[in-house]
Amino acid sequence: MSGLEFLGRSIVEALGQLVTGRDQVYGAMLVSLYVAGAATAICTLAGVPAGFLLATRDFRGRRLAVTLLNTLMALPTVVVGLFVYSFITRRSLLGPLDLMFSTDAMIVGEVILGLPIVTALTLSAVASQERAVRETAATLGAGPLRSAATVLWEGRFALGAAIAAAFGRLVGEVGVAMILGGNIAGSTRTMATAMALETSKGEFPVAMALGIVLMSVALGVNFVLRYLQGKGEAR
Predict the structure, then answer these.
(1) Pair 214, 208: CB distance under 8 Å
(2) Tens digit of pLDDT for each residue in 87-109?
């Protein structure tokens, strides 16, 4: 069987897996969406204000903070997984919380991965138009909070792109999910870790089905973002 024939057969069988609703496919999808969604929400709540402050405040060490932030965007996922593992393993400082091999531990790890992305992209979005927008708002009588809200509103599409980028990075995460979640079926197994497992077992149709779902989720997020951007530009 040639490579193309094998690929075509795997795709056909993968579509059959999706139609029949195999538990390992949709169960892993739900875990992925829950963990990535929760982590992205936390990153948004913390990263947007942090990025705004870095863009609008001048303080000693700001340049170092921005450099460190940009460095953290390239953190290897395995390093993050091992770092969090060292704090939550049973004999460690946070061991009594019993976070090991849980979705909570995976969320903590993914927040560490996603937070620099949201913060850095928010910083870039605000810095690109902050001064002119704030000056305009101030001349119209807006106070500091209203001016800040105006800046964020004007940069809402860039902020949406930042959030989408973070979610896209996290929903396909393997290293953190494997180390902190343990790849437990029905509990902490995500689409990405399930793909790695099924591929190692030779179950290519199941891995292909998971890949199709993962790509569909990523495309769906981007289509929604583009749709919202188009509506905003049409106004």
Answers:
(1) no
(2) 998 888 888 888 889 999 999 99
Structure tokens at 104: 């909570």
Q: Please tell me the distance from the alpha carbon of residue 14 to that of residue 194, in angstroms, as a whole number.
A: 14
- Is 34 strand, coil or helix? helix
The secondary structure of the chain in percent helix, strand, coil, rounded to multiples of 5, reads 80, 0, 20
Per-residue pLDDT reduced to its tens digit, 143-183: 566 777 777 777 788 888 889 889 988 998 888 999 999 98
CATH value of 30-203 in 3.60.15.10, 3.40.50.970, 1.10.3380.10, 1.10.3720.10: 1.10.3720.10
The pTM score is: 0.84
- 235: three-class secondary structure by DSSP: coil
> What gap in Å lies between CA 125 and CA 83, rounded to an integer?
30
Q: What b/e string do you get for 93-124 counting C-beta neighbours within 10 Å, with b at 16 or more?
A: ebeeeebbbbbbbbbbbbbbbbbbbbbbbbbe
